[in-house]
Input
Amino acid sequence: MAWCMVATWPFSLAGLEQAARQLQAGSSALEAAIAVARRVERDPEVDSVGLGGIPNLDGIVELDAAVMDGRDLSIGAVAALQNCISPVLVADRIRTSTAHQLLVGSGAEKLAAAMGLERTCLLTDKSLKTWQEQKAALAARQSIPVGHDTVGIAALDLNGDLAAVTSTSGIAMKLAGRVGDSPLAGSGFYADNDVGAAAATGLGEEIMKGCLCYEAVALMRSGLEPQTAAEQAIRQLHRRLARTRGSVGEMALVCVDRQGRIGAAANHASFQYAAAAPGQDPAVRPAPQVS
Ligand code: ASP
Output
């Protein structure tokens, strides 16, 4: 049986190196993927996930995260969660211990408190300074960088089980309560043991229009290899959006299939991802650009 893991952006690499050792030693895909997300969430240098993540327009960090187990298609997700350093843990608790799939805002925060998770201020000096600069730029009607990057992980373990996990602070200067693709099953993530798993990053408002991750898994179900499925899912949504609108926002995805093959693609040149598999040391690679 093979194992493999792919994760969005170079900031995933350190966590993925550790998770690859865990997978090799028999850890579950779910455990290993959650471990990668947790590491990125706690890293204050990553300005788009967890601690130090990008605040919303009001200067408050609101986090989205999700976990999906490919064995039984069980899902847990949180959206617009404040004051919690580990949204992915709350998402997983929703999956395992409630009758629900997605909790938002104060309800998610209440569950985090019930889990004994410490209330944490997620603003750092750096993220506060960036927010102040962006607010000033907006007031002066200057454009600001969109500033987004989700950690999204797709993994296969030695048992043949698949998982997908996401965690993000969303896009810069979002309105309070804005929810992106990352906690929405089928858009920001999907995992099915019968086929494969996928996770996305990019402008959620675009990704949601094509249920991008479900589409990538559906293409693998139809017989495509992960690499071809990733490229086709991105290309077809990009083209559909471009046909009726002037410009298309950034979109990217990573995916794996149940045979341990890996895929990644983006509609822009800057997307890089981390990957590991037997015989392939963990490394960051550029994804092919398709449009
Ligand atoms: N997809 C995320 C969102 O729209 C952001 C990102 O991945 O860059 O919230």
